[in-house]
Amino acid sequence: AQRVTQPEKLLSVFKGAPVELKCNYSYSGSPELFWYVQYSRQRLQLLLRHISRESIKGFTADLNKGETSFHLKKPFAQEEDSAMYYCALRGGSEKLVFGKGTKLTVNP
Amino acid sequence: DTAVSQTPKYLVTQMGNDKSIKCEQNLGHDTMYWYKQDSKKFLKIMFSYNNKELIINETVPNRFSPKSPDKAHLNLHINSLELGDSAVYFCASSQPPLGVFFGPGTRLTVL
Q: Taking CB atoms and an 8 Å limit, are A34 and B99 in contact across chains?
């Protein structure tokens, strides 16, 4: 079974501080991991895919198979980063399973 | 404009009514989905179609019936609407190894 856990429902940081949004997964095979962002009342947007190893808007995420984690990090948070962040896993089927999301608030 | 689009954006209706939400993607993807986002912002997959064929059907009441006339369209029909159906419904599409791309959502309110 595919399962994604985001332990923090809410995360609040100050502008300029580092931010880390945690994501752990459970899957017996080789997973594809993603981070999605949803700004207030907007659609979900793909932020990162683990296979591309890219950095978008200053965010990075590294897949750690030993710890089954895919934490999202940014060294200096900006106010415009305030949003809901979802970690997601795609296993063998086409099904994309989401974590429950973390609401990030960046305070001025 | 390449995207996933869905209509209507807002839907307010009475309990017991039947309503439909339409979705179209012009990305050329083979797979389309319906996801439900509840009031706690949890996202749950409802259905997935691959080339017009149903491949994922989660435990969704029979009142929800998806229809895919072609691989670019996946509509959702809901019969006998209930209060608990109030949510935001997202259509999405994908083509491995790319991620899943979402539509703007339809906010359904059942009174």
A: yes
Closest residue in A to B38 (Cα) is: A100
Inspect the interface and report whether the beta carbons of A94 and B105 lie closer than 8 Å.
no
Q: Using the structure block, give the residue that is written with the tokens 């594809």.
A: A32
User: From CA A79, how far away is CA A1, in angstroms rounded?
Assistant: 36
Q: Which amino acid is at B72?
A: A
Residues of A in contact with B97 (CB under 8 A): 32, 49, 51
pLDDT score recorded for residue B2: 65
| C-beta atoms of A101 and B99 within 8 A | no
Q: Token match 């369209």: residue?
A: B73
Task: Encode pLDDT of B53-85 as tens digits.
Answer: 888 888 789 999 999 999 899 999 999 999 999
**Across the interface, which of A44, A46, A90 has its CB nearest the CB of B90?**
A44
Instruction: Tell me whether residues B102 and A45 touch, CB distance under 8 A.
Output: yes
What DSSP letter does each residue of chain B carry, written as one string? --SEEEE-SEEEE-TT--EEEEEEE-S--SEEEEEEE-TT--EEEEEEEETTEEEEE-S--TTEEEEEEETTEEEEEE-S--GGG-EEEEEEEE-TTS-EEE---EEEEE-
